[in-house]
Amino acid sequence: MKKRSAFLFCFLILFVFSAGGCLKADEALPVLTEEVRVTIPGMKGEVTLLWLSDLHMVVPGESADPACADSISARSAYSSWEGQTAEAQWNGWVDAVNAADADAVIFGGDILDLCSREGTESLKNGFGRLNKPFLYLRADHDLLPTYLSGVDEGMCAGWQSALCENADVMSMEFDDFIVVGWNNSTSNVSDAGLERFRELAESGKPLILLTHVPIEPLSDDSLAAASEAAYDGRSLIWGYRNAAYWPEENTRKLLDLLYAEDSPFVAVFCGHLHLSWDGQLTDRVREHVFPAAFSRQMGVIRVGG
């Protein structure tokens, strides 16, 4: 990586929580917001990003496997809120995003609970109504035909690619920073993905990483402990010590970039665990995990000077 300017060594990131802040798209969809602030010295103005992940929308459609009817029903109940399924919530979520004063929205993975034709069509209809630019990062639930019959992963990939951009790494560039999305972070980084990460690292701008699956902090086990408490002893994060996601070569090289003393990254935002956590990935890089959208919660990321 090129030698980084001294300016990039001094980024300060402050995270401020606003649990209890309420935004209403309509009377049926009250949304709690969790606010996180990233401060980049010298930046003029402010950019606001919305984060929405883990809606786990169940739309089995005509491909539902009759043998899995009980499992499908249980999954739908899991992501329902006061009797309203995640599918029924989707239009309300689009309205809530459209009503918010923000520059862009990040869909951080597991928006679908299973990848059916009907589910991706429902997403497409919602995306078509958005009044903001967006990135949609897929995760395993968005990509797999779980509980379906006659659908394979190739069909799911085709439906997903017809929705919107579906590259291994996706980005959105602003005047003073770049947000970088690791698509399908429930799998290891691809060759193309690693090359794109390296290109962006050479841009000279600070990077904010968006990933569905959280990353293990260098010297703090509290994220692993939070996951283990919620998931029967499983630490559902990427890492080397207490992690269920073990990095192969390309992912190790990404982690090297994140953990480096001169890392181009200044913050990491994640979902996946259905809980809220905030801490240091390294002394330089902060990490924040947002709770699940099916619990009516949306992240608000404010980036400014």
What does this structure look like?
The chain has 305 residues and is of the alpha/beta class. It has a single domain, classed as GpdQ, catalytic alpha/beta sandwich domain (Purple Acid Phosphatase, chain A, domain 2), CATH 3.60.21.40. Helix content is 27%, strand content 21%. The protein has 8 helices and 12 strands. The strands form 2 sheets. The chain has a 6-stranded mixed β-sheet. The longest helix has 14 residues. The chain is globular. The protein starts with 20 loop residues before the first strand and ends with a strand. The N terminus is likely disordered.
Which properties best describe this structure?
Purple Acid Phosphatase, chain A, domain 2; 6-stranded mixed β-sheet; 8 helices; disordered N terminus
What topology does this entry show?
Blueprint: E1 21-24, E2 30-39, E3 46-52, H1 69-78, H2 86-99, E4 104-107, H3 117-129, E5 134-136, H4 140-143, H5 153-163, E6 169-173, E7 178-182, H6 191-201, E8 207-211, H7 222-230, H8 249-259, E9 265-270, E10 277-280, E11 286-289, E12 297-304
Parallel strand pairs: 2-12, 3-4, 4-5, 7-8, 8-9, 9-11
Antiparallel strand pairs: 1-2, 3-12, 6-7, 10-11
Helix pairs in contact: 2-3, 3-5, 6-8
Look at the structure and name the CATH superfamily.
GpdQ, catalytic alpha/beta sandwich domain
Largest sheet: 6 strands, mixed
Query: Which structural class should the secondary elements be placed in?
Result: alpha/beta
Query: In percent terms, what proportion of residues is strand?
Result: 15-25%
Q: Uncertain spans, ≥5 residues at pLDDT below 50?
A: 1-28
Distance between the termini: 26 Å
Spatial order of the strands in the main sheet? 1-2-12-3-4-5
Proper CATH architecture: 4-Layer Sandwich
| Annotation field: number of helices | 8
